[in-house]
Design goal:
CATH topology of chain B: Alpha-Beta Plaits
Oligomer: heterodimer
CATH architecture of the largest domain in chain A: 3-Layer(bba) Sandwich
CATH topology of the largest domain in chain A: FAD/NAD(P)-binding domain
Distance between the termini of chain A: 50 Å
Number of domains of chain A: 3
Distance between the termini of chain B: 19 Å
Largest sheet of chain A: 9 strands, mixed
Structural class of chain A: alpha/beta
CATH class of chain B: Alpha Beta
Number of helices of chain B: 4
Largest sheet of chain B: 2 strands, antiparallel
Number of strands of chain A: 17
Shape of chain B: globular
Largest interface: A-B, 53 and 37 residues
Number of domains of chain B: 1
Order of helices and strands of chain B: HEEHHEEHEE
Strand content of chain B: 15-25%
Structural class of chain B: alpha+beta
CATH class of the largest domain in chain A: Alpha Beta
C-alpha cells in the first residue's frame, strides 16, 4: 500500500456514500468523501421519502436534529381516470407518533446536513470534484483519478455511491449499459404553499405529512406513477414513467407533469402554490435481474449505482442507506484480516443477502417484467375501476343487479375472460 | 407553466465545453430522434437538418445516455463545480 493512501475513498455524497463515510470515519478511518456538486445534495434528487429505520441505524434519533420536513402519518393511493379517481388510504395515529416510520426530506438540505455529520466524525469532504477513472493495480482497485490537477487519490478500498449514472461501475466492468426499460424518468416540482394551507388541505396536524401515490391517467397509458408529498412549506409533485415508454410514446415529461397538475382531483390541492424548482432524475427500476456485480478487489458499489431500488414499494433511500452501512461493515472486516481482495469483500454481498435489501429485491424479481409487459395495468384497469365505482355509486333508480350486469359487460367488452385470468395469474405469481 | 420558465428558476453554471456529445452521423441516420421529446429540459432540438444541443440547460438525469436510439451520446458529468445546482432537490 502507498504511504499517501487513505483507508477509504467514497464516491458520491448521497445517502449510500455518506452513510459509509460516516461509519468508517467513526471507526477511526481516514476517509475521503468525493462529491461532484457545489455542496452535498446540489445534484441529488428523489421523490422525497426517507425511512426512519434505515437512517437510524446510521445516526440514532437523527430526526431530532436533521432537517426533515414532515413525518408521514398517511399514505394514499389514487387511481385516476381523466376526470375522476378511485382512492385507497391508510392513516394512523401510530404513524403520527415517534419514533415515526418515514419523513419527507428535501435532499439539498438533508444531504448537506448528513455530510456535515460525516465531516464532524472525521471524514474529509472534497466537493466540486468529479471522479473520472478508477486506478487499478492488476485486478485490484487502488484509487481514483479526479478531475483536479494532481488529483489522484489512493486507498485500500473504494466505495462507489455515484448514483444511477454510475459510469465508474461500468468502467470497472461490473455492469453492462442500462437499458431503457430498466429506468424510469421522473420529473418533479417543488411547489411552495403556506404551512396552514398544507395542513388544512391534507387534513394534517402540525408536523404531520401525507404521501400520495398516483397511477392511471397521469401517465397516459405508460408504465409509471405520480406522487404528491407534503413538505413543511411546500409540496413535492412529480411523475415518473419508464424511459422505454417515453421513447415510444413521444410524449414529453413536461406535458405529463402539467397534465397531472391540472387533473380535477389535484388542481385544488396545488392552487395558489408557486413552483420553486423543477428537477429530473432517473430511477433504477431494473430490479433483481439488473443488479450488477456489487464488488471486486478493492471496490464495492452501493445505492442507486447498484440498482438497489424496490420500485413497487417506492423504496430507495432505505436501500441506499443500508447498502452504504453494510459496505462500511464489510470494509471494516476486510481491514481486520488485512485483505481487501474480491473474496474478502464478498462479505458485503452476503450481508446484503441477509438483509431486506436483496431479500425484497429477489422476492419481487418479476415486477419489472410484469409492469413493462402489461401496460394496460396502467391504463385499462384504472379506467375500469373508475367506471365500475361510478355505476355502483350513482343512485338512478336502476336495480343493483342491472348495474352489476352493466359493469360486467363493460369489463368483458374491453378484455376477454382469458386475458383477465392471465393478468390475475401474473399478478399472483409476482406478489405471492 | 412553460418549461422555459421552469428552467429559468434553476441555478446553472455552464461550462464552456459541452458534456453531451452525440455522434453526428448517428443523428443524421436517426429517424425518430426520441431525445427531442423525452429530454426533460428539451436540451436536444432538431433545427435545419442538425441536432442542436443546449447542454447549458441539462438537468444531468442521464436519460439521453440510455434512451438514445443508437446509444450514441458520449455522456459525461459536467466538470466539478459546473452544471445545475438544486436548492431543494
Amino acid at each position: 500500500m502507498r504511504e499517501d493512501a487513505f483507508d477509504a475513498i467514497v464516491v458520491g455524497a448521497g445517502p449510500a456514500g455518506t452513510a459509509a463515510a460516516y461509519l468508517l470515519a467513526q471507526a477511526g478511518w481516514q476517509v475521503v468523501l468525493v462529491e461532484r456538486g457545489d455542496y452535498p445534495g446540489a445534484k441529488n434528487v428523489m421523490g422525497g421519502i426517507l425511512y426512519r429505520k434505515a437512517m437510524e441505524e446510521v445516526i440514532p434519533s437523527f430526526w431530532e436534529e436533521a432537517p426533515v420536513e414532515r413525518h408521514i402519518s398517511e399514505q394514499r393511493l389514487w387511481v385516476l381516470s381523466s376526470d375522476s379517481a378511485f382512492s385507497l388510504g391508510y392513516k394512523s395515529d401510530q404513524l403520527a407518533k415517534g419514533p415515526y416510520n418515514a419523513f419527507t426530506v428535501l435532499r439539498a438540505k438533508f444531504d448537506s446536513w448528513f455530510a456535515k455529520r460525516a465531516e464532524e466524525a472525521g471524514a474529509i469532504l472534497v466537493s466540486q470534484t468529479v471522479v473520472e477513472d478508477l486506478i487499478f493495480d492488476q485486478d485490484q482497485v487502488i484509487g481514483v483519478r479526479t478531475g483536479r490537477e494532481e488529483g489522484d487519490l489512493f486507498a485500500q478500498v473504494v466505495i462507489l455511491a455515484d448514483g444511477v449514472n454510475s459510469l465508474l461501475a461500468q468502467q470497472a466492468g461490473l455492469h453492462p449499459e442500462i437499458l431503457p426499460y430498466q429506468v424510469a424518468l421522473a420529473v418533479k416540482e417543488i411547489i411552495s404553499l403556506p404551512k396552514e394551507k398544507i395542513e388544512d388541505r391534507f387534513n394534517l396536524e402540525e408536523g404531520e405529512g401525507t404521501a400520495i401515490e398516483i397511477v392511471g391517467e397521469n401517465t397516459k397509458g405508460q408504465v409509471g406513477t405520480g406522487f404528491i408529498y407534503t413538505n413543511r412549506e411546500s409540496l413535492s409533485v412529480g411523475v415518473g414513467v419508464l424511459l422505454q415508454d417515453l421513447v415510444k410514446s413521444r410524449l414529453t415529461p413536461q406535458d405529463l407533469i402539467e397534465g397531472m397538475k391540472t387533473h380535477p382531483l389535484i388542481r385544488r390541492l396545488l392552487a395558489g402554490g408557486e413552483t420553486e424548482e423543477y428537477s429530473a432524475h432517473l430511477i433504477p427500476e431494473g430490479g433483481w435481474v439488473a443488479i450488477p456485480q456489487l464488488y471486486r478487489g478493492g471496490l464495492m458499489v452501493a445505492g442507486d449505482a447498484g440498482m438497489l431500488v424496490n420500485s413497487l414499494h417506492r423504496e430507495g433511500s432505505n436501500m441506499a442507506l443500508t447498502s452504504g452501512r453494510l459496505a462500511a461493515g464489510a470494509a471494516l472486516r476486510a481491514k481486520e484480516v488485512g485483505d481487501f481482495s474480491a473474496a474478502s469483500l464478498s462479505s458485503y454481498r452476503t450481508a446484503l443477502e441477509q438483509s431486506f435489501v436483496l431479500q425484497d429485491l429477489k422476492r419481487y424479481r418479476r415486477v419489472s417484467g410484469l409492469l413493462s409487459g402489461h401496460p394496460h395495468l396502467f391504463s385499462l384497469y384504472p379506467q375500469m375501476a373508475n367506471e365500475a365505482a361510478h355505476e355502483i355509486l350513482v343512485v338512478d333508480g336502476r336495480p343493483k343487479a342491472e348495474k352489476v350486469q352493466l359493469i360486467k359487460g363493460m369489463v368483458f367488452q374491453k378484455l376477454s375472460r382469458w386475458e383477465i385470468l392471465k393478468d390475475l395469474y401474473h399478478l399472483w405469481r409476482t406478489f405471492r | 407553466m412553460k418549461l422555459e420558465d421552469k428552467l429559468y428558476l434553476l441555478k446553472f453554471k455552464p461550462d464552456e465545453k459541452t458534456h453531451l456529445q452525440p455522434k453526428e452521423e448517428d443523428c443524421q441516420r436517426c429517424t425518430e430522434r426520441p431525445c427531442t421529446t423525452f429530454c426533460p429540459a428539451q436540451v436536444y432540438k432538431w433545427e435545419e437538418g442538425k441536432l442542436v444541443v443546449s447542454f447549458e440547460n441539462c438537468l444531468e438525469c442521464g436519460s439521453c445516455r440510455i434512451g438514445c436510439t443508437f446509444v450514441s451520446v458520449d455522456w459525461r458529468y459536467p466538470r466539478g463545480g459546473f452544471g445545475v445546482s438544486f436548492r431543494f432537490g
